[in-house]
Structure formats: structure tokens, C-alpha cells
Description:
Blueprint: H1 3-23, E1 26-31, H2 34-48, H3 51-55, E2 59-66, E3 69-76, E4 80-87, E5 95-101, E6 107-112, E7 117-119, H4 126-129, H5 134-150, E8 159-168, E9 171-179, E10 187-192, E11 199-205, E12 218-227, E13 230-238, E14 245-246, E15 248-251, H6 296-305, H7 311-324, H8 329-335, H9 341-354, H10 359-370, H11 376-385, H12 390-399, H13 405-419, H14 432-438, H15 444-461
Antiparallel strand pairs: 1-8, 2-3, 2-15, 3-4, 4-5, 5-6, 6-7, 8-9, 9-10, 10-11, 11-12, 12-13, 13-14
Helix pairs in contact: 6-7, 7-9, 8-9, 9-10, 10-11, 11-13, 13-15, 14-15
Amino acid sequence: MNNYQTIWRLALSLSCLLACISVGAQTSEKTSSLDHAKELWELALQAKGGRERINGIESIAFIRDYRPTVSVRMTAFPDKSFYWWGELDAKGTGVACEIKNYASGFGFNQVGIFPRKTYQDIRTDPAFQSTGSGELFKGEILRDNQLRFLLETRWQRPELLSAGKATIGGRSYDRVDVRIPGDTAASHAIFLDEKTHLPMRFQTCRDTKGTLTGSNWGTEFRSYKVIDGISLPTQISEIGSGRWDKIQIELNPEYEPKVFEREPDLRAGPFQWRKAGTIPPATQAVSSEQIESLTTAQISQYIRDLASPDDEVSKYARRELVTAGRQVIPALTEALKAGSPAHRFRSAVVILGIDNQNPAAMAALPEFLLDPQLGKADRQDAAFGLLRNERGIAVLIELLSHHDPFVRRCVVFAFDSLTERAEIPQQIETALPALRKLTRDKDEVIRGMAKEVLEQIGNRFKR
């Protein structure tokens, strides 16, 4: 990513962030009552299964099965983690694999086609620390596998800070703010269901004052199930992802300790950490049979909520509609025909989240790209969306010569994204004359990006 690309994306991100801040999507009333925080925390622990059962957990595994792709993370408390992402039959290429052992210092990292790296001591290795993932990754292990899903373990008991009420997306929660001992840079907000007391949302605050913004990292939970006496979610949604993911959790899975001391066999798949001879639970692949039916009234309400000025309400509606699948496409297709540009664009985004080649939504994208009433980030996203098929790419090629420099910027950035794919479609060669012309454009950003795109095309096609 060059300087032009960085500046352009930062500008678009800033415009989105300012919009999020202006709507005030979240409200909360925190109290200084530590006693109230303790009371809510104990209720949450009891709802999870009780402190005694939780303290008996020594390892945990998370499995997301999207066959043919599978994501697995296994953590042996308090300081070892194995992560694997890729296709079940992968032969060592296109696989992400990480091993972190903070007890011995051993580390391993392989991401896709990039060279594998082995670290003798990740606690002090400058190369590992320069990736920016050293202590952050260790903190992620603690949050993901202890605080987020178990609240506490015998290795980690968070410090309670405050408690109060919170309203997010029109829904009311009990909120408890905590801090992981030793972490002075962040605090964490746990949002509890007011009736069941189970955690429904986890959010990290990048300060110790509990300040939440739309850019905070976090997770939502639903569809709890009792596993070995512990209540755990079977569906999670990373805040801002726009979808619910099904997750399978194993408590105290038996594992081979040596897996944390050596380079993994990338051809051995995501479960090579299991102890030989153990029988794992059956995995549950995501399927259309697990999708819940929505009523006509629910679908209509979610579509109306897409236009909400409350960012949390809009994101919630988008996620529920995408999760509902093809049953909502007819109503969303009607929503494409009327309403504000932003509402229509959000309807198109949801449709493409369900059916990424939907003709009606794809046909609407050029109009969104050219609409000055639509936000700049949305217009750029419309350009990226046109990369989905040959017809969309043909439209982008025509728009390389558009009179509006903003449109030309959006298009050239879309082509830059296209040239970063593993395979570049031969169709892009028809864009070469227009791209060469853009190297003499009056706009400096367009000139620079056109030159980069041409260089990438030349390198790939060896012209």
C-alpha cells in the first residue's frame, strides 16, 4: 500500500468515524458503586455455571466450520495458544497457522503464501515484536479465551471498576466495567442481559475511563447452550462484521503438549494439537437448515432500521437480515426502488451479503457510485462492489474516463484492489489505454495510483 492509498483510505475512514460519533449510538449511565458491580458480577458467574466449575477449566478450543474452510483456536491456560485457518484438505499453502508459547518463548507464524517464521523467544525477539502482535496477542489470548467467554479463571480474575445501565441500539443492558490486572492501557465493558445475567456483548475500551466509540473492538453473543455445566454462546458476532457466526466450543480438550514446542506440520490440518487416541465431538458445519424464519413484520422493521441514524440500530438490522438469508431478498429488492440514497445503498449491501451476484443489486451499484448525495465511503464501496463480475468490471473501465475526479479516484482504487488478487482477470487488459491516460491526470492521487496499477499489471502479465 503506497502513500496515496493510505491517505485516501484514512480520509474515507475519518469521514465514517465522524459520522458514527455524531449519531451517539450508545448511551450509558455508570455508577461508582463497586458493590453493585460485585453483585452483577456474581450473578453473571452464577448464570455461566458457577465459579467452581469455571475454575476447573484448564484449556478451551473454538471451532468455526464453514466447510471447506475451518478456523480453530485452542488455548491451554494461561499462556499457550494454537491457531489454524484454512481448508481441511489444504496441502500447506494458503494456510494461516500460529503457535505462541509464552512459558518457553517458542513461537511460529505462517500466513498464507508468505514465508514461515520461527521464533526462539517471542518474549524478546525483535522480529516478533516488530510485527506489533507481541503483547497485544498475549492480551488477546487472555480476553478471547478467559474474559470474553468465561469471565474469569483461576489464572485471571479481573478487577471490577464500576457498574450501571447501558442502552445500545434501543436495547437495555446491565453494564460492568473491568480491567485485566497489569493492563493499564485499556478497560473492558461486559453487557449483561437484565433477566438471565448472561453476557450479551463484550467491548474493549482503549482507555481506562470506559469510553466507548463506534471504533471499539468487541463481540456480541447469543444462542447460549450448557456445555459441561458452563453456559456458552453458540453464535457470535464481531462488532461491525454485519453477520452472526456459529461457533463450537470444547472445554478441557485433551491435547499434545509438544505441539507448543515445535513447528507444525501444515499438511496435518487444524486438529494436530489433539492428543492421539482422543475422540473429538462432532463438528457442526454452518448450513441453511439452521437459519431461523422471520415474520413479514420483522423483515419490514429490519429494513426500516437500515435507515436509522443510530449506527448501532442500522448495523444490528443489517446483520439480522444477512443472517436470515434469501427469505429477505424480495423485500430488500423492493427497498432498492425507493427511499434515500443511503437506505437504498444499505439495502443493496445486504442483498450482496446474501447473494454476491444478485442482478438487481449489481445493477444499482453504478448509480450509487455516481450519486453525490451518497457518502464518499459508500461510493467507494460501490466501486469495490462492481469488481464482483465481468459486467461490473466493464462498467468500471468505462468510468475511468468520467469527468468527476472523485469517481475516477474511486475507480482507480478499485482496480488497485483488483490487481492485488491472487489471479487478475484477463479483462483488465482492456483498461490499459484509459489507465495510461490517467498517468497524466490533473489529480496527483489519480496519477500516482494509475502508475501503480499499471506496474502491478505489467509485473503479473510480464508485458
